């Protein structure tokens, strides 16, 4: 048993009724810590990383700790004599107990070496006081203190508050030795060296994308943006499906009887789960999704459709089509999926349809998007998985001669661009060329019209079934343009040189 376990018990003990209990605190630990700091300022190094003055239950102790902190960080001595002079000069000596109390703190010290342990006891009591406060808020809301929040919104607000406390209140982390960091870097390089194509991250199923990005890396937030009809959803689903199949293949290669863990979660805020499934089936079976919806297919096509659906049923892909999902609800569902099925990739379609955490009221849309992108980045880091978030682009793209997107075209671009590790734009020149077909009535004579029409047809042939993925920002690698194959009938992306009957994932 740790010698300080008994110090962390809440004042009042566990046998008292709830209404009689006092907030968790440990005055003895606070006094012992302050005494250790006053006796030897080097002890401050053991607690400076995680402890602040507001963590003390006794406000007097918080004020004394703040004075010690201020002097030490200014390179000055903090002991009973210097603190007495400082408090006396500012006229608050009596408020902190006078000279006698400062001297008494020294006698409360057990040992300098225990300062870190005392600090953790103080911090633990602070966290538990925060949990008590949070619990009171949850109870009051449940009794109707905030009638504008229904039960579901209250759950989401409670989850968000707990997450904030866990994030802001964590005393973990800190320095990592360079040796440990080097080991991780070598392991990453070894994985890339031993993997065909030099992919160290999660494969996307698109060779040229993997080559440019090195796969999808844990903790990264990737933004995939584009104007409507460019194929954002189709490309994201393609990447998600490719990643899920790669996870499945790797697991079964190691053990053919293995239960595959580490699936792909797609949060579709715009399309329903069955619509996304139809897209994947259409792509894999080479049967037009539009014809499937209208029932305009032959028996042979339907049989192929059913056969492919059986083959794909084991793919570890999970779809959540909850509209206007909040960042806290998304986090909760991802945590649950990670715990039960494993999780390798999160896709959100799309960013602007999400809502910030329940209980928060951003002042404007930019601030709201900033909260969402920061939340997605936090989820990527917490779960150590890549997160791909789709984003709409502003209409200013349409006003330019060259319609290729730029970073400035991102809606609320400041926060999105800042939080993202990778920003990619999907662009299809064929879409815009089709709108610029020459009209005979706009030309003075037939010859000019024929010349313009021939040029347009040539440009259309050059752009037919081609798309560009523009990597405008990549924190850990090069930027540039990746040329992709796009087949509109099946909303299918692939590597550019692939023919219609090749398997994307062979």
UniProtKB/TrEMBL annotation:
<dbReference type="Pfam" id="PF03796">
    <property type="entry name" value="DnaB_C"/>
</dbReference>
<dbReference type="GO" id="GO:0016787">
    <property type="term" value="F:hydrolase activity"/>
</dbReference>
<keyword id="KW-0547">Nucleotide-binding</keyword>
<dbReference type="InterPro" id="IPR007694">
    <property type="entry name" value="DNA_helicase_DnaB-like_C"/>
</dbReference>
<dbReference type="Pfam" id="PF00772">
    <property type="entry name" value="DnaB"/>
</dbReference>
<dbReference type="GO" id="GO:1990077">
    <property type="term" value="C:primosome complex"/>
</dbReference>
<keyword id="KW-0378">Hydrolase</keyword>
<dbReference type="GO" id="GO:0003677">
    <property type="term" value="F:DNA binding"/>
</dbReference>
<keyword id="KW-0347">Helicase</keyword>
<dbReference type="GO" id="GO:0006269">
    <property type="term" value="P:DNA replication, synthesis of primer"/>
</dbReference>
<keyword id="KW-0639">Primosome</keyword>
<dbReference type="InterPro" id="IPR016136">
    <property type="entry name" value="DNA_helicase_N/primase_C"/>
</dbReference>
<comment type="similarity">
    <text>Belongs to the helicase family. DnaB subfamily.</text>
</comment>
<protein>
    <recommendedName>
        <fullName>Replicative DNA helicase</fullName>
        <ecNumber>5.6.2.3</ecNumber>
    </recommendedName>
</protein>
<comment type="function">
    <text>The main replicative DNA helicase, it participates in initiation and elongation during chromosome replication. Travels ahead of the DNA replisome, separating dsDNA into templates for DNA synthesis. A processive ATP-dependent 5'-3' DNA helicase it has DNA-dependent ATPase activity.</text>
</comment>
<dbReference type="InterPro" id="IPR007693">
    <property type="entry name" value="DNA_helicase_DnaB-like_N"/>
</dbReference>
<dbReference type="GO" id="GO:0005524">
    <property type="term" value="F:ATP binding"/>
</dbReference>
<feature type="domain" description="SF4 helicase">
    <location>
        <begin position="195"/>
        <end position="500"/>
    </location>
</feature>
<dbReference type="GO" id="GO:0005829">
    <property type="term" value="C:cytosol"/>
</dbReference>
<keyword id="KW-0235">DNA replication</keyword>
<keyword id="KW-0413">Isomerase</keyword>
<keyword id="KW-0067">ATP-binding</keyword>
<keyword id="KW-0238">DNA-binding</keyword>
<dbReference type="InterPro" id="IPR007692">
    <property type="entry name" value="DNA_helicase_DnaB"/>
</dbReference>
<comment type="subunit">
    <text>Homohexamer.</text>
</comment>
<dbReference type="InterPro" id="IPR027417">
    <property type="entry name" value="P-loop_NTPase"/>
</dbReference>
<dbReference type="InterPro" id="IPR036185">
    <property type="entry name" value="DNA_heli_DnaB-like_N_sf"/>
</dbReference>
<dbReference type="GO" id="GO:0043139">
    <property type="term" value="F:5'-3' DNA helicase activity"/>
</dbReference>
